[in-house]
Structure formats: structure tokens, C-alpha cells
Amino acid sequence: MSLSGRIRPQETETIAAISTPFGESGIGIVRLSGPQAERIGRKLFKPKKEQGDLISHHFRYGEIIDSQGNPIDEVLLVLMKAPKTYTREDIVEIHCHGGYLILQKVLELVLREGARLAQPGEFTKRAFLNGRIDLTQAEAVIDLIRAKTMASLEIAGQQLRGALQREMASLKEALLQHLALIEAHIDFPEEEIEPLSLAEMRQGLGEMIHKLEEWVDSYEEGRVFREGISCAIVGKTNAGKSSLLNILLKEERAIVTPVPGTTRDVIEEVLNIEGIPVRLMDTAGLRKPKDSVEMEGIRRTRERVGDADFVLLVVDGSRGLDQDDFEIFEEVRRKKKVVAINKNDLPLKISLEELKREFQEDPIVSISALRNDGIEDLKKAIYNSLIHRNVRSSPEHLIVTNIRHKKALSQARENLSAGLKALKEGASLELIAFEIRSALEALSEMVGETASEEVLNRVFEQFCIGK
Predict the structure, then answer these.
(1) Does 182 share its domain with 246?
(2) Total domain count for the chain?
(3) Which of 137, 173, 261, 452 could form a disulfide with 133 if both were Cys (CB 3.0 to 4.6 A apart)?
(4) Phi, psi (deg, nearest 5) at residue 31
(5) Short-list 449, 334, 457, CA closest to 3
(6) Residue 183 carries which DSSP code?
(7) Are residues 91 and 18 in the same domain?
(8) Residues 67 and 143 grouped into a single domain
(9) Residues 160 and 196 occupy one common structural domain
């Protein structure tokens, strides 16, 4: 299904929804989009003063009235005429006071006049179907709304501004040029392809494959920024796990006492580490349980450690390593982690050489949770363990955050790799053309030019009603 052949909304349908969160607020917005939006807005709106006719993209002050002419609320109304609107359809927004009953009453009046309730994401879906944005930009809208840190906000904003769409358009244009050359030779075999053209094609395909590999490889970092990670704070009893949680959060979230086994359940809080949302889990100290309550806490700890994306292993530097430590080391051996040697304000009793032998691939940081020493170094170590590239160096540096995009880019890379191999081996031009066409299909589906209705539904069902 090409862009021109996209399924378009029925021309007679006007949709409406409350576009602001439910609850009490200063302002709430009821939004309409479609051919009847202006008519409905004019019928329900009564200007407070003589202001002339409604002008596109200008606010008017007045009242929303019911069918008997009774005022419902003082409002600001704005008419936005197509095509310079979010959906490229006529849009009316009614800015009411932000009470639940007021908004529901206004929406009820709008629906009574012939609009229907919008489905989740239908405003953005219409923007896509009407060609205002591509599918990657539509997906960026939901990422923008759900962003938890400035870093994830910047990445979503970059995609919404069309960075990914522009790269895909450039890539497709280059592939179409190669395909045109091949197909011309297939149609006119008596015209030989010049060796220079073949060499340029090999170089061009190689550069595209390299670029696709970079984007695919960026996905893991992109997912971390977009979704965040779960991080279990693990260690022996009284190693300082709860103190470390408190100092990282800059608040007394966990109870800290000298009594071993104070933490009985898993405590969770979210921390922003250089743009990464990190869900910290302070867990019960791992040891032989003293009672049934502590046994349950340790069971939950092991369960959370198994499910965690990352482990912050806290080792008490003021006590020598013992059997409990080595059992914990084995438990987290295969997890991605940073080791924190806590209590560096006390004499060191553990062997650093032994610890480095145990964790040759993992960063080790010396800290004091009591004195807030080494905490910034610990945060940097966590960040560097998760992110291995400068993903925010410039607007041109793309990072892929969506698994659908990763799959499409991976498919295009595989097709082009097969095509380049065939080209080097002197295979038939038909085979090379097939691989290039397959790569183009993967990229077209990614930006929504050939996306199925099932894919579109899966994308837009993630949205809230009103967006």
C-alpha cells in the first residue's frame, strides 16, 4: 500500500475527544477534527462580545451553550482551517475550565451535534493518513508523551522533527538509483554496465550496510533511554545497600540501622542517571535467613535479581570477604553490573586484587555512602556500562529506540549484504535487483508507506484518546 493508496478516514466523519487528562485543572480542552468541526463549533459557541466572524488560528472568547441556549461554561474557542492543522483537516478546540463534569458535558453536546468519539490515537493517525507525518514521526509522538528524562525527550523530539524519516528517504533514493541502473541493463542487455558504475555500486552498498549496522547497533542504548532499566542493589546484610539507596535518591527512603536484616522487602524508586531512568531496587541482604519473614525477603531478592536488567553489587570494604560474599558473587556472575566497595571511610579489609580477579570485566568503584564520597563516579560507571557511544553528540547522530524500526533496518541490512555478496561474486543482475527491492520494501514499511492495517492498529492503539 503506497502513500497515495493509504486508507483514508471517511470524509463524512468528524471525531471529538477530551485532549487533556481527567481531573481538576485550570484548563481542559475538547478537540474536534473533520468536515463538520466548524459547523459544530459555530452552533455551540456564543461570543461574549461582538468580535466579528471566526478567523482561522485566532482565539475567540465566549460561552458554550446547550440546545436551549443555556450557558455551560465560559470558554476560548479556536478554529483551525485545513490544511495547516495537526490532522490536515478542519480542527476546533474548545478551551474550558478543567473540571471533569464541564468537559464531559461539552463533549456530550459535541457528540450530540454529529461528531463521534475518537479512538485512541486517531488524531495522530489522521495526521499520518493525510500525509502530514510518516509512521516513525507518529511513533515519536507517543515517545514524547511518555518521556521520563530530558535525554529520552531529546531523542523523541529528534525523531518527531523527521531525522529518521530524512535518513530513510536519502537511503531509499540511493537504492532506487542503483536499481534503475540494474533494471536498465536487464531491459537492454546489449548495453554493458561500465566497470566504474559497478565499482561505485559496490562502494555505495557497502556504505549503506555500514550505516544500517550503526543504527541497528544503537538500539540497545536507545531502548535504555526510552524504557529505562531495572537495577537491583545486592549485597550482604549491613553492606550499606539502604544507605546507598538513600544517598542516590537524596532522601531517607529506606530505614537504616546497625541491626542486620533490617530490610525485609524490596524497596523500589526511580533515579535519573544522565538521562537514563533507573528503577532502583533495594533488596534484603543475602544470607541464611533467621526467620520466616527474612526467608520471604531473601526469596523476593533472588527473584528480583534474576529479573533485573542490571546489578549494583555492594561489598563492605571494612570486612574481609567470606563465604556469603562468594555465594553472592556466583549468584550475580552473569549479570551486567558495577561493583561498589562501600565504607571507604573505614580501614580497607578486603583484597582489591582478589576482587579484580573475581570481576575482570566489571567496573569497580570505591565509595562511602555515609560521607557521600565517590557517588558521582559510581553513577558514571553505571552509565558507561550501559551506553557505549555518544548518542547525544549532535542532531545528526541517530539512535534507534523502537523494536519495529530495528527489525526493519536489520532486514534491509541483510538484503543489502546478500546483494553486495552477489554483486562481488558476479551473480545475475536479477538476484541483485531482488535484494535491493526487498531492502526498499523493508524501509517503506518502516516509514509507513506500505504498512498493513494490522501494523497501524498496533502502533496507534498505544495512544491515549484525544491525541
Answers:
(1) no
(2) 3
(3) 137
(4) -115, 140
(5) 449
(6) H
(7) yes
(8) no
(9) yes
Residue 431 buriedness (CB in 10 A; 0-12 / 13-18 / 19+): middle
What is the mean predicted confidence (pLDDT) over 290-298?
A: 57
Same domain, 369 and 248: yes
Please give the helix or strand (H or E) that residue 198 lies within, else none.
Answer: helix 195-217
Average pLDDT rounded to a whole number, residues 337-353: 92
- Flag whether 97 is in a domain: yes
**Distance separating alpha carbons of residues 341 and 317, to the nearest angstrom:** 5
Residue 365 near residue 244, CB atoms below 8 Å: no
Q: Say if CB 283 and CB 263 are below 8 A apart.
A: yes
What's the domain range around 429?
A: 139-218+397-447
User: DSSP state, 286?
Assistant: P
| 300 CB neighbour count, 10 Å cutoff | 16
DSSP code, position 195: H
- Please name which of 467, 462, 411, 433 lies closest in space to residue 184, comparing C-alpha atoms: 433
Q: Are residues 188 and 163 part of one domain?
A: yes
Grid coordinates of 38: 466548524
Tell me, yes or no, whether 223 lies in a domain.
no
Q: Are residue 193 and residue 333 in the same domain, yes or no?
A: no
What b/e string do you get for 387-404 counting C-beta neighbours within 10 Å, with b at 16 or more? beeebbeeeeebbbbbeb
What residues contact 329, with CB distance under 8 A and at least 6 apart? Answer: 313, 358, 359
The 10s digit of each residue's pLDDT in 184-229 is: 888 776 666 665 578 888 999 999 999 999 999 989 888 999 889 9
Same domain for 129 and 143, yes or no, is no
Could you tell me the pTM of the whole model? 0.80
The verdict on residue 210 lying in a domain is: yes
Do residues 163 and 394 touch, judged by C-beta distance below 8 A?
no
Q: Is the pLDDT of residue 352 over 50?
A: yes
Residue 188 or 436, more confident: 436
Decide which of 240 and 15 is more confident. Answer: 15
Q: What residue type is 144 in one-letter code?
A: L
Instruction: Compute the C-alpha angle 187/190/196, nearest 5°.
Output: 90
391 assigned to some structural domain: no
pLDDT at 452: 85
In the DSSP assignment, the letter for residue 438 is H
Q: Which of 325, 324, 396 is nearest to 358 (CA)?
A: 325
Encode pLDDT of 157-171 as tens digits.
888 998 899 999 999
- The winner for highest mean pLDDT among 142-151, 252-261, 379-388, 413-422 is 413-422
Instruction: Give one DSSP letter per residue of 44-112, joined into a string.
Output: HEEESS---S--TTEEEEEEEE-TTS-EEEEEEEEEE-TTSSSSSS-EEEEEEEE-HHHHHHHHHHHHH
